[in-house]
Amino acid sequence: MMKKDCLEIVRSKCESCKACALGATRNNIVFSDGNPSTAKIVLIGEAPGEMEDETGRPFVGRAGQLLNDFLKEAGISRDEDVYVINTVKCRPPKNRVPSDEEKASCRKFLNAQIDIINPRAIVLCGATALKSFVELDKKQTISKVRGQWMTINVDGKDYRAITIFHPSYLLRNHSLDEGSPRRLMKQDLANIKNEILADVDHSQDDNQVEYMNTSREIAMV
Ligand code: URA
């Protein structure tokens, strides 16, 4: 089965989902953005905001525009290289951080998306995404963890992963000085481009889904 067809099945399940309270207040689910056929990276943000809820697309507000600028500068194509998703698919009221229960009820969709895309790397954008995959001890703040390659296991499969700052944080931090969050974001994206995208050959893109895994995921959804 093709990736995009599998994702459509998951999306349609997500569209009718009322597993948590966010299902009652959303205008639209915010499922994903990007090209599943060519994307080598899954980028995971926190949750949809107002603009995302209105349009049904992730990262289209101010934070999204800043993310686009950083990706572009790093030579990473948001349309071709990155499949963009969030830890939850519905907007939390007043843009609060999604609760553990909300994240848990949405997890099957997130895991299915990762499984279907089968990315070379997962980029955890901000603390909410990071904490959805990694248990942090008290000393491990996002500032310490960002930029480090690690291995995360999603439903029994290992993926390379790296954490970057969330663009909302960068909207509040304008400095470009050595060691500033914006400077570190540029370094991290350059590192990702170098490690993950340097040898991409789209004639080798594999659009088929690893069938066993995905059928299990979809059955669960
Ligand atoms: N912030 C996020 O984490 N995700 C979005 O889609 C938009 C803003």
Written overview of the protein:
With 221 residues, this protein is α/β, with parallel strands linked by helices. The chain is 43% helix and 13% strand. The chain has helices at 3-15, 22-25, 50-55, 62-73, 100-117, 127-133, 142-145, 167-171, 181-197, 211-220, and strands at 41-45, 82-86, 121-125, 150-154, 157-164. The chain has a five-stranded mixed beta sheet. Helix 1 (3-15) packs antiparallel against helix 5. The model has no long low-confidence stretch (mean pLDDT 95).
Describe this structure in a few short sentences.
This protein has helices at residues 3-15, 22-25, 50-55, 62-73, 100-117, 127-133, 142-145, 167-171, 181-197, 211-220; strands at residues 41-45, 82-86, 121-125, 150-154, 157-164. The protein is of the alpha/beta class. Uracil is lined by residues 30, 45-49, 52, 58-59, 61, 63-64, 86.
